[in-house]
Amino acid sequence: MAGRPLDLKTLCSVLKTRSKRKVQKLAQMLIEEYRQRNMALEILELEDGVKQKQVVEVRGSHAYKHIKQLIDAGLVAKEKVGRNIILKTTPYFADYFGLSHDIKTMKKQLKSLFESFGSGSQQSKG
After folding, report:
1. Over the chain, what HEC string results?
2. Predicted pLDDT at 48
């Protein structure tokens, strides 16, 4: 929700932890949660930058329709970089999901989201 891909180091910083394993586990839990919702929005783990081509490779050709819907809704913007198209969230994305535009506040919100999601899943399993 930062308008750019977040690497593990950044996520560790947001969550104020050094445990990359813990962050990967929480990210995987969020990925699964979004997958179960069966929506156009999805969290993806990518090897490098968020390229439209990679989204299509992961989601299949129907992803073009979903990407267009997100762009039409003003939640995502396309940026051409060389021969690649990079997808970025827009300020409206933050507004729509009730997130702050201030990066420090957004980091706190994300941390809270990860922590509540992590503890909620642990409670339901335990």
Report:
1. CCCCCCCHHHHHHHCCCCCHHHHHHHHHHHHHHHHHHCCCCCCCCCCCCCEHHHHHHHHCCCHHHHHHHHHHCCCEEEEEECCEEEEEECHHHHHHCCCCCCHHHHHHHHHHHHHHHHHHHHHHHC
2. 54
At the top level of CATH, the class of 8-102 is: mainly alpha
- Predicted pLDDT of residue 120: 56
pTM of this prediction exceeds 0.85? no
Low-confidence ranges of the chain (pLDDT < 70): 1-5, 39-42, 44-49, 51, 103, 117-126
> What tokens were used for 32?
């699964």
Domain ranges of the chain: 8-102
Question: Cα(88)–Cα(66) distance, rounded to whole angstroms?
Answer: 14
